[in-house]
Amino acid sequence: MTRTVALTLHVPEAHHDLLIADLADLDFEAFESEPDVLQAWIPAPRWSEAVRLSVAGLLGARGVDPHEALTVEIIEAQDWNATWEASLEPIEAGGFVVAPSWADLAPTGRHVLRIDPKMSFGTGYHESTRLCLRLLSEHPPEAGARVLDVGTGTGVLALAALAMGAGEAWGVDVDPWSVPNATENAERNAMGDRFFVAEGSLEVAPEGPYGLIFANILKSTILPMLPDLTARLALGGDLVLAGILRTERNEVVAACESVGLGVEAEATENEWWACRMSGGEGVEAST
Fold first, then answer.
1. How buried is residue 22: exposed, middle or buried, by Cβ count under 10 Å (0-12/13-18/19+)?
2. Residue 8 has pLDDT above 50, yes or no
3. Which of 3, 177, 279, 284 has the highest CB neighbour number within 10 Å of its CB?
4. pLDDT of residue 79
């Protein structure tokens, strides 16, 4: 085992998701987000002055002074994976329990999803994932429906839809770690024959139509792809959007209305907002 460099970044929580993506590109391997504090860890051999300057640049680009907001600590070697695994506990959201494979669970009457996250997003710990699961619980897919999960991460949302009666699901993600992780989680939940994962964005997914589409990403990614997402919906299908801040709600709703979608349901938790959109008979699906 090797030493680890731990960063503590004092930045508003609204910046955390994008910072995590940027830091992952710099080879940081683990993250913990709390209100206005983001922690990130990288193996000491990968830490350098160039990486420190890159992190400082990321903070500066967000109007944050790195001299005040950034602290660096060297941590002696220990079994971080075991420590991290021990910290994961089952999460309840709507009609689901999301739990790591090693957790012991008492019967709850909810759908149990065994998710080992590794490097991918989607453990149920983030509000946006929980909001999607709650919206799905309130309005399950039609039996046998085809599902698309854009930014699938661990595959948790696609697997949740399959657990509620969907027929098959496709997951796409630009994160290369997501493909083996989501595939393993599908096998772990005995859904490997109905869930298919590919690296990339919408261009690698079958055209559709889909009765249900998830896009739990970020507003800046969702808005440009709205026309394509809408075109892939089956008539009367649902589009579940998340990864959106409450302050961004009106902008997203207006963009959806411009492509013929309307709000059917919405939910919030802390500063996050999610919705279920439908176009009814007004949406033409690709075939």
1. middle
2. yes
3. 279
4. 52
> Quick check: 170 and 107 in contact, CB under 8 A?
no
4-83 has which CATH code?
3.30.70
Q: Give the lowest-confidence range in 141-155, 210-224, 234-248, 272-286.
A: 272-286
Q: For residue 105, name the pLDDT band (cuts at 50, 70, 90).
A: confident
7, β-bridge pairs = 40, 72
pLDDT tens for residues 111-137? 999 998 765 455 667 889 999 999 999
Q: Which residues contact 282 (CB under 8 A, 6 or more apart)?
A: 260
- The CATH code for residues 90-282 is 3.40.50.150
In this model, does residue 282 exceed pLDDT 50? no
Residues in the chain: 287
Tell me the C-alpha distance between 221 and 82, whole Å. 34
Domain ranges for the chain = 4-83, 90-282
Answer yes or no: is pLDDT of 146 > 70.
yes
Name the pTM for this structure: 0.73
CA distance 180 to 177: 6
